[in-house]
Amino acid sequence: MLQDRRAFLSSLGGAALVQRPAPSNIVVLFTDDHRFDMLSGLGHPDVKTPNLDRLMKRGVTFTHACTQGGPHGAICVPTRAQLMTGRSVFRANEFVMSRKGGPDPAVKTFPELLRAAGYETHGIGKWHNQPALYQRSFSSGGPIFLGGMSDHDKVPVHAYDAEGRYGKERVEIAKGFSSELFASAAVDFINGRGREAKPYLLYTAFTSPHDPRMAPGRFAGMYDPARVEMPPNFMASHPFDNGEMKVRDEMLAAHPRTEAEVRKHIAAYYGMVSEVDHQIGRIIDAVDRSPSGKNTYIVMAGDNGLAVGQHGLMGKQSLYDHSWRVPMIVSSPFAEGGRRCDSMCHIMDLCPTICRFAGIAPPEGIEAQGLELALRDEKRAVRKSIVAPYKDCQRALRTDEWKLILYNVNGVKTAQLFNVKKDPWEMTNLAEKQPKLVAKMKSELQAQLTAMGDRTVLDAAKWVV
Fold first, then answer.
1. Is the pLDDT of residue 130 over 80?
2. What domain range includes position 404?
3. Would you say residue 9 has pLDDT above 60?
4. pLDDT on residue 21
5. Distance CA 30, CA 439 (A)
6. What is the structure's pLDDT at 23?
7. Please, which residues have CB within 8 angstroms of residue 168's CB and are 6 or more apart in sequence?
8. Ordered DSSP codes for 214-250
9. Judgement on whether residues 406 and 336 belong to the same structural domain of the protein
10. Chain segment 160-191, per-residue pLDDT in tens
């Protein structure tokens, strides 16, 4: 049975909260390769996101939400696993990538817990965390994209199968653009529910704005490359080998980068962002029209950021802010909106938060921090610092003021120290001028990495994953 929500409301307190009439619905919207600053509501000079902007006006925008890197180039896999389980990057990735009998049944996803508590859990779009785990998590759904990426007008999808049969022989190539396809399925699900239906979790994961950058219709030419503003940290080449200079994402533009080519990529990327924003607007509208719309949480986040020319990079396989920070908006029907929380937090912190929205206990063994206090008071800190690893070559620690990135590539160790308060574009490396601070942050970084299951010893000649 669904648990009583009054204890949850009592724990939150605050004058801005009101009594909820019934168990709440929860809508989770997850975008792909969506950089943290791709919100016009945060003051971006070019990109237009009117629907996410109106969601910002109804909720709390977490301006320093981050991914936690990953042990391989497909950052979206461990990020999605962190969201689902509330576990840090290595433990989450090991869980979903298990090859011995599938994911551990003792480790629960938040949709799995909501499903056991009486929610209808409906999954749409990109999964990328094994079919067996999808089947455990969702009681209905589809279309389901089990892969990592594809052309947006040729997405191979599965229909929901109650017995969990998702072999290659059951794949169909969907008609229509990916984000429209997934948004339409979400709208149909919301519209098909009656007033007396049990509460639901709707998880819609888009494959956009991930490349290929092929926005349809009016979005394709929405931004003129000649008029987009170039980032201050644009570089023709990254100043040194970061250990991932030839990954697929970095081959999307020629080396060295030219301003003309990067402008085209930026304009096309903005078109993709505005298109998926439009589709998200359709889902928000459907929620608002529904009988239970005033009793529905909407959570929006992205799986990782993207460089698109910053620091001479194109992809997300780095630990600069452009690659590890993501948009995150939490809209509660019981709290005042239009607020911003600048505290650092992780994607995994959404897991226990969503569980508590449903009035249930979060999964056991999690490392995530709930966001409830920050939702009540946006000045409350969620985390004082955050760390992230990438493969066996990059490790980083960030505080409110400072960021340390360490590299170990073919035995060559490099350190970058940025004062992110004064230098948010991460352009001036102060590592040589601040050796004591580097040493102090390195020690803290090592402690946090060890606590989260990273086997890397930063002083060792070779790092391990």
1. yes
2. 387-451
3. no
4. 52
5. 37
6. 85
7. none
8. ---GGGTTSS-GGGSPPPTTB-SS-SS--S-SSSGGG
9. no
10. 999 989 888 889 999 999 999 999 999 999 99
For residue 462, tell me if it sits in a domain: no
Domain boundary among 383, 407, 423: 383
| pLDDT tens sequence across 382-433 | 999 999 999 999 999 999 999 999 999 999 999 999 999 999 999 999 999 9
CATH number at residue 444: 3.30.1120.10
- Cα–Cα nearest to 235, from 318, 314, 322, 128: 314
Residue 104: what pLDDT?
84
Q: Are 78 and 180 contained in the same domain?
A: yes
Q: Where a domain ends, among 324, 352, 383?
A: 383
CB neighbourhood size of 324 (10 A): 27
Residue 101 and residue 212 in one domain: yes
Phi, psi (rounded to 5 degrees) for 239: -70, -15
Position 4 pLDDT exceeds 90 = no
- Backbone phi, then psi, for 406, in 5-degree steps? -115, 140
Sign of the Cα torsion 31, 32, 36, 41 reads: negative
Q: What is the pLDDT of residues 221-248, one digit of tens each?
A: 999 999 999 999 999 999 999 999 999 9
Token reading at 273: 């962002």
Candidates 452, 12, 427; CA nearest to 235 is: 427
CB distance 115 to 139 below 8 Å: yes
Model confidence pLDDT, tens digit, residues 312-322? 999 999 999 99
Structure tokens at 186: 């979400």
Q: Which two tokens stand for residue 291?
A: 């009988």
312: left (phi over 0), alpha (psi -120 to 50) or beta: left
Q: Does any domain span residue 460?
A: no
- Residue 420: Cβ within 10 Å count: 17
Question: Which residues make Cβ contacts (< 8 Å) with residue 137, sequence separation at least 6?
Answer: 84, 109, 111, 112, 115, 121, 123
